[in-house]
Amino acid sequence: MDATDVGADLKEILIPADRLQARVTELAAEIDADYAGQDLLLVGVLKGAVMIMADLARAMRSPVEMDWMAVSSYGSGTRSSGVVRILKDLDTDISGKHVLIVEDIVDSGLTLSWLVGNLHSRQPASLRLCVLLRKPGAARMDVDVAYTGFEIANEFVVGYGLDYAERYRNLPFIGTLAPHVYGGEEAPKPAPERVEEGREPGPDA
Ligand code: IMP
Ligand code: MG
Q1: How far apart are the first and last CA of the chain?
Q2: Given its phi and psi angles, is residue 82 left (phi above 0), alpha (psi -120 to 50 degrees) or beta?
Q3: Is the distance from the beta carbon of residue 110 to the nearest atom of ligand 1 less than 6 Å?
């Protein structure tokens, strides 16, 4: 899928495919160097992290194991308290393993700080975070991200795994959507507003 396939839905391409690939390759080299000689388990957070996980793992030179988790923050109408539900747990026992969580985006940081707490309690040898995109709101939660792809502004983005209402995940770039896509409503609110007012029904975790 490409920009021409989504036509007028697209407002702007923020990060083109070649920049994404170049940055993911850099991150892979950093991770390779940092974990040299150690076994590493990559934990991808479904569904958004599918693209970064696939590209990152293929760009790495060291063998890695891959496992997946699916989580969901409480939906619309509820105050987002950082309470997260596990939809799919890991298949692997991570105790004593070096674990790197791979995620598409950190916005308020609520999802990732919960996930770090959850996985930490399973006693891995080490636990770090790799995030493709980081929004400014993440600073408030003090989530310690070891590997960040890009810092972006506080706006709603899609593509390369990220969705709006389950669509646009298979765009090869990161972009923003035209207002008509949101049906004349405002684009889903990025943090911190989402944290105070609760989640919008559109995008899932
Ligand atoms: P957080 O808990 O606020 O850090 O954000 C958690 C989840 O919200 C992310 O893992 C994404 O699934 C989703 N999300 C946050 N910002 C965006 C965005 O700009 N586009 C698509 N999904 C987003
Ligand atoms: Mg996500």
Answers
A1: 22
A2: left
A3: yes
- What is the separation of C-alpha 39 from the centre of its chain, rounded to a whole number of angstroms? 23
Q: Residue 139 and residue 106: Cα distance in Å, rounded? A: 10
5 is a catalytic site residue = no
Q: What is the pLDDT of residues 38-97, one digit of tens each?
A: 999 999 999 999 999 999 999 999 999 999 999 987 654 444 566 789 999 999 999 999
CA-CA distance, 27 to 29, in Å (whole number)? 5
Whole-structure pTM value: 0.89
Task: Pull the structure tokens for residue 29.
Answer: 């080299």
Single-letter residue type at 187: A
Q: How far is CA 14 from the centre of its chain?
A: 16
Alpha carbon of 183 to ligand 1 centroid (Å): 20
